[in-house]
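[Q] Does anyone have a clean structure-token version of this?
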Amino acid sequence: MRKIVLFLAIVFSTQFVFSQVFVDDQNINELDIKYVQLIGVNTSMFGVKIKVFVDYGQKAKFMKADGIKDATGTVIKFNSMIAALNFMNNNGWSFVNYTEAMFSGKLRYVYLLEKRE
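[A] Here you go.
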């Protein structure tokens, strides 16, 4: 009986953790928005090192770009854009479109995502 109660407690507690994507200390899943851009920038000259950002229409800050954070406020580091895309998919966002663009000599990977209903 204890195992069943413990199992149910774990299952229900994970439901509350689901859908928490923090950008600039704001849980974007709680906002009245439908689309976001998941932007990855290759910051390495030798190999691939990706910094991932989310644009949900927030006011841009000069010389500062906020990454995706967890509930404790720690910036989440991704090994690749696919890891970031999988993270967003697991948190209620669906892939719509993809493009690449050069900006200030750096390649940007831009994914358009839509919030699932």
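[Q] Thanks! Anything notable?
[A] The longest strand covers residues 93-103.
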